[in-house]
């Protein structure tokens, strides 16, 4: 057996499955999306972290972010921690005027409750707490959050209002992101390219504790490990995360033009297609 033949055999035996995966996933996702109703808009960004497979569908189009906008707020928090401008151990006294509706538990806490900044940050991400989010936006500065996104290479995504500001939303001042740019932020966390490696590990740990089970996790086994942030408004459902499988990958999906249960089903099915290909 010649050396060339052995090398060719190695390539066919070991690399063929990888190449097949790279070719197959985009075809599967394209076929899935083509079967959806015409009025349903789905924005998808898939990127493997171990091979060259990519799939982008309307991934550069701005969409209402809902609570997925909390990912850049998380990053800005940790950047300010790194710069010693924000202390996670500092105690925050919850004021009645800070409480807002929508998702979260802080609105139910007694006035003048004492919570650490770390607890505020964690509730923003794990319970999508809107009161916690608005506290952090005020503490960090909306301009700083937007400037950080621009510094990290995001040219379109922008935080334009605090949570539950329905008047601002009606006036067109909506928080908007793109699927591709959310992947970019998650990739920077995964690769320790923001804040510090220790703070990136802390961000990933918090993202892994997301309590929302109705999108990416809908059709996956309980053992699936995903560091992600979900978002929900009456007109959009989204999820963006890092999948810790045999071959890790990034996935961001936003769905509009259908009911919330159907949007969750679509996000769950897209996640299952990717998960089953890369687990």
From TrEMBL:
Query: Which domain of life, per UniProt?
Result: Bacteria
The record's similarity note reads: Belongs to the class-A beta-lactamase family.
- SUPFAM superfamilies linked to this entry: beta-lactamase/transpeptidase-like (SSF56601)
Q: What is its EC number?
A: 3.5.2.6
GO MF, one term, reads: beta-lactamase activity
Species: Larkinella humicola
Task: Write out the GO biological process terms.
Answer: beta-lactam antibiotic catabolic process; response to antibiotic
User: What is the recorded name of this protein?
Assistant: beta-lactamase
Q: Which reaction does it catalyse?
A: a beta-lactam + H2O = a substituted beta-amino acid
Q: Where is the Beta-lactamase class A catalytic domain?
A: 44-255
């Amino acid at each position: 057996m010649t050396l060339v033949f052995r090398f060719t055999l190695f390539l066919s035996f070991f690399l063929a499955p990888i190449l097949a995966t790279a070719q197959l996933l985009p075809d599967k996702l394209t076929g899935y999306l083509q079967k959806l109703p015409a009025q349903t808009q789905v924005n998808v960004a898939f990127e493997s972290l171990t091979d060259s497979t990519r799939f982008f569908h309307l991934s550069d189009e701005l969409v209402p972010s809902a609570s997925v906008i909390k990912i850049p707020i998380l990053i800005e928090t940790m950047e300010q921690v790194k710069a010693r401008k924000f202390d996670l151990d500092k105690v925050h006294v919850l004021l009645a005027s800070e409480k807002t509706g929508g998702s979260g538990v802080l609105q139910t806490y007694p006035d003048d409750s004492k919570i650490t900044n770390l607890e505020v940050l964690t509730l923003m991400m794990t319970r999508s707490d809107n009161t916690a989010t608005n506290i952090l936006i005020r503490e960090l500065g909306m301009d700083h959050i937007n400037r950080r996104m621009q510094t990290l290479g995001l040219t379109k995504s922008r935080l334009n209002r605090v949570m539950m500001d329905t008047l601002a939303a009606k006036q067109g001042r909506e928080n908007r992101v793109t699927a591709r740019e959310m992947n970019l932020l998650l990739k920077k966390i995964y690769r320790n390219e923001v804040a510090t490696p220790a703070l990136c590990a802390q961000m990933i740990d918090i993202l892994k504790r997301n309590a929302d089970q109705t999108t990416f996790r809908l059709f996956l086994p309980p053992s699936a490990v995903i560091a992600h942030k979900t978002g929900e408004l009456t007109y959009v459902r989204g999820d963006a995360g890092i999948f810790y499988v045999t071959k890790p990958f990034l996935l961001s999906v936003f769905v509009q033009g259908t009911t919330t249960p159907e949007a969750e089903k679509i996000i769950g099915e897209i996640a299952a297609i990717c998960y089953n290909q890369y687990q």
